[in-house]
Amino acid sequence: MTALHRDPGPGVAPGAEHEYAACADLWSRALAHRDGTPPDPLVRERVLRKLGQEPHLLLVLRPDQDGDPLGFSLSFPPAGPEPSRTAHLAYLALDPGGQGRGWGRRLLAATLERLSGTADAVVLEVLPDNTAARALYESSGWRAVGEGRFADSGRPNVVYRRDLDRR
């Protein structure tokens, strides 16, 4: 009897500076797909500026070691003096063709795992009508804790928080 080989799918690994442009393009495509609009070069530039901020954690979902990113997360570890131990998840994106395969959940879990040693909690903001993202976060243990506005666009958002396991 032959054992069935199950493809584990794409892997998550730390991203590198040479992937910044691909990640910014991916975010721009994902937003255009979500909103039914053409990609906006200003959105791409905002992502590139964020990627230039240090320190950050960039994780990339790749089909293989050399493949172009299928997804990425960009988060910022806690900054400032104690007791602020809250990280910020700024971006979580998947190529529109990769949605619905569990890859976003895999990328989110890897991000939380990597932040667990440096933060007690993570916050993020999401558009109120982004039901797919909100469903992913809520089913992954995140809870809505407030409302606000995105600093870069002024659009309203829902703020989510996820407490992390202490190590």
TrEMBL record:
Keywords: Acyltransferase, Transferase. One of its GO terms (molecular function) is acyltransferase activity. The keyword Acyltransferase applies. Gene3D superfamilies: 3.40.630.30. SUPFAM superfamilies: Acyl-CoA N-acyltransferases (Nat). The keyword Acyltransferase applies. Its EC number is 2.3.1.-. Residues 10-165 form the N-acetyltransferase domain. It comes from the Bacteria. InterPro entries: Acyl_CoA_acyltransferase (IPR016181), Bact_Acetyltransf (IPR050832), GNAT_dom (IPR000182). Pfam families: Acetyltransf_1. This is GNAT family N-acetyltransferase. It comes from Nocardiopsis codii.
